[in-house]
């Protein structure tokens, strides 16, 4: 299928699909005409990419973990034992970011409350 069809099936823009290709997340076949040709399996691959992005992973990390994920029917799971270490590291990074954002929000609330109306 061509990029427009993949975009329609995944609700992801062609521009974003090209970006995923640049990042090594998608590997379409290039036809002699230069057109990209995607496989049916790429629909599921894009869905996995979107799930991992929603989980807070960047595309570099996704490129590493994507081959080691499986769909359990209830979501993605790690298929490679070593992957859990990477996922825990990413979870810790996200937890730290949440803590820092909460602190920033508290400081901002203090400034807002101290400001005369």
Could you characterize what this model shows?
This protein has 117 residues and is mainly alpha-helical. The chain has one domain (3-114): Orthogonal Bundle (Multidrug-efflux Transporter Regulator, Chain: A, Domain 2). Helices cover 60% and strands 9% of the residues. The protein is built from 5 helices and 4 strands. The chain has a two-stranded antiparallel sheet with strand order 1-2. It has a two-stranded antiparallel sheet with strand order 3-4. A hairpin with a 5-residue loop joins strand 1 (29-30) and strand 2 (36-37). The termini are far apart.
Task: State the main characteristics.
about 120 residues; mainly alpha; Multidrug-efflux Transporter Regulator, Chain: A, Domain 2; two-stranded antiparallel sheet; two-stranded antiparallel ribbon; extended; MerR_fam; MerR-type_HTH_dom; DNA-binding; transcription regulation
Quick overview:
This protein is mostly helical. Helices cover 60% and strands 9% of the residues.
How would the blueprint of this fold be written?
Elements: H1 3-10, H2 14-22, E1 29-30, E2 36-37, H3 41-54, H4 59-65, E3 69-71, E4 76-78, H5 83-114
Antiparallel strand pairs: 1-2, 3-4
């Amino acid at each position: 299928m061509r990029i427009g069809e993949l975009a329609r099936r995944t609700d992801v823009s062609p521009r974003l699909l090209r970006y995923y290709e640049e990042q090594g997340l998608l590997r379409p076949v290039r036809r002699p005409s230069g057109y990209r040709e995607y496989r049916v399996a790429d629909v599921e691959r894009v869905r996995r990419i979107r799930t991992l992005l929603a989980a807070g992973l960047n595309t570099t990390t996704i490129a590493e973990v994507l081959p080691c994920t499986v769909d359990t029917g209830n979501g993605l799971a790690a298929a490679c034992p070593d992957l859990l270490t990477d996922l825990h590291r990413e979870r810790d990074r996200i937890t730290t970011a949440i803590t820092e954002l909460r602190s920033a929000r508290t400081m901002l609330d203090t400034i807002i409350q101290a400001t005369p109306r």
